[in-house]
Please model this.
Amino acid sequence: MPKTLPGFIGFPEKQRPVIVPDSFFTDLLPQIDDLAELKLTVYAFWLLNEQSGELRYLAGSDLRADERLLNSLNLESDLRTPQAALEDALERAVARNTFLRMDVETGDEADPLRADWYFLNTAKGRRMVALIRQGKLSELQNVLPDEARLHVERPNVFVLYEQNIGLMTELIAEQLRDMERTYPPEWIQEAFEIAVVANKRALRYIQAVLRRWETEGKNETNGRSGRDSASEKSKNYAPDEFSDLIIR
Model:
């Protein structure tokens, strides 16, 4: 006899809606081939919907302690433990670019405590990551202690383009390779972040920022603290004269 599944009593008449982008169904869903990854992704929409404020992210420690999530991953057909299934799902979601991961270290350098944060790879999520990297998100100060350090693995130029700008063509790939040969990787990443913050998502804009740094010099601190200079970066290095290069 087939196994009897527990019944669902139905959705109540009044409840809060959860916003799920159309592209989840049209683009992402056909790609997901692991049930744990699918459950985690759908659950993430609900978790983020429950949050408020600009800084919305999923803490790895919270996910690992979430009994509702772990119970949903406890399947007889899955040889993995719920905890192992969750770790695998997180890795898959990051590799698929559904989630953007940031690593945070707190405590002293001799005995650091490490935490992992996950942002949904939406325009807003990418903007939050860029602002955090530049030290410009004021809400971050309410979350992290003063001694916290952000450690983000620097993505290669192709990942930067696909996550922040759009689909890659062979012509764009060649321009990105030329960019890698010409400029330091930290310049390239910062130029992408400035473009995201300024909402100028075009390769020509990023190239213009890099050319300006190359010809006029890249003043890292300008006599200010790292946080102060970061807060000025999009103003100093993303001036209006670049706009006519990308607006058509």
Observations:
- The first strand starts at residue 58 and ends at 59.
- Residues 221-242, 244-248 have pLDDT under 50 and may be disordered.
- The chain is about 50% helix and 10% strand.
